[in-house]
Amino acid sequence: MIESLIAPVSEWLIKKGQDKIKESAEFQNTRLAIRQAVVRELRLNRAFIDEVIKLKEDVTGLTLAMAEELEVSAFNKLEDSFMPIELFFDCERPALDEESSDGQFLNWASQLENEALWVERIYMRLRILRARWRCSKVPKNKSVQYVRWLIDTWLKQQTNRNRTF
User: Fold this and answer.
1) Res 137 pLDDT > 80
2) Is 87 helix (H, G, I), strand (E, B) or coil?
3) Maximum C-alpha span of the chain
4) 15-64 confidence digits (pLDDT tens)
5) pLDDT > 70: percent of the chain
6) Fewest CB within 10 A of the end CB: N or C in the chain?
7) Number of folded domains in the chain?
8) How far, in Å, CA of 36 to CA of 5, rounded?
9) Residues spanned by the domain of 142
10) How many CA atoms does the CB half-sphere of 145 hold within 13 Å?
11) Which of these, 151, 139, 147, 121, lies nearest to 63 by C-alpha position?
């Protein structure tokens, strides 16, 4: 599905250039559809992470099953298109709640200057998490909580943006 959205953007990008396509209604609709696909994918991944966090004991089989279910296909398709993800994720980075957020998470997030870098970090950390779970290496709770925090913070920004439209 997402490939059918990306293909025309590649053509528009080559023919018209990045600045021109951003103004078109077709691109805006495509951008919205791609962003919604990523939102759905991250909500699903957040639910899988929550299930693993709930575990009170080491249940390797369940953790492995969750690893297999973690979804990164929407983002992979964007990466495979070789288009700059900044075309689709061009907003400011999420606002950080410094009072209720872990100081180390805030420090790590300070390197993420824009939304595109934030989304890339989410997917990088999801892939690392999935790889650790697949080899039955249970990551430290801090690592899992960091991925959860990244997703939550970005999804909160999406919810707030949708309310303003």
Assistant:
1) no
2) helix
3) 56
4) 677 677 777 888 888 889 999 999 999 999 999 999 888 876 666 777 78
5) 84
6) C
7) 1
8) 12
9) 2-164
10) 9
11) 139
